[in-house]
Design goal:
alpha+beta
Length: about 180
């Protein structure tokens, strides 16, 4: 449940978002392939109902049942799309000057660049699952999770986001005088 504090945080995130350069902003998008599968499934089920109704020469009760089942399928599919769209619309990632900041359905999380190193990034990538790509950043006792993708939605231009994160990591290491892995033996 959202409280007043969450709304202020989301508003602050949106304010930062609007002031940042477009190349540092990453939105979520719906998985179009899954939407197409859903569309074809619903269309096939409604079509099969109509064909069966015609072949079986159903009376008004049969057509009513087929119509109700088709309506339930259509309303259910529309509801799923609405929920996924809402999640995607209310989630975003921002590569800010001070931190990696992300919004996931109203909850704002951030991870300062000074807390991220190659090991943290490597562990986050290694522990992501195939169907639900969650980057779990473990920093000390705290774990912060960034959803990269799931079957319903994904971050637009995820490879570019990862490149931005790795560039920031390299800049932070150079600024703090930490040698990169390439130079160390």
């Amino acid at each position: 449940m959202m409280n007043k504090n969450d709304l202020e945080k989301e508003a602050e995130f949106r304010d930062r978002w609007s002031k940042s350069h477009p190349s540092k902003r990453f939105e979520y998008e719906l998985n179009r392939e899954l939407l197409l599968v859903l569309f074809f499934f619903v269309t096939a089920m409604v079509g099969m109902g109509a064909v069966l109704g015609s072949i079986l020469d159903m009376a008004w009760l049969g057509w009513t049942i087929i119509g109700l089942l088709s309506a339930v399928l259509l309303v259910g599919a529309a509801f799923l799309i609405f929920v996924w769209h809402t999640y995607a619309r209310r989630s975003a990632v921002l590569v800010d000057n001070d931190a990696l900041v992300w919004l996931y359905v109203g909850e704002v999380r951030s991870l300062a660049w000074t807390l991220i190193d190659r090991e943290v990034i490597g562990n986050a990538l290694e522990n992501s699952k195939e169907t639900k790509g969650i980057l779990g950043f473990q920093v000390g006792e705290e774990r912060k999770e960034l959803l990269a993708y799931n079957p319903h939605m994904r971050i637009k231009n995820f490879p570019i986001l990862m490149a931005e994160i790795l560039q920031r990591l390299q800049q932070e290491q150079n600024k703090n005088g930490k040698p990169g892995e390439e130079g160390s033996e």
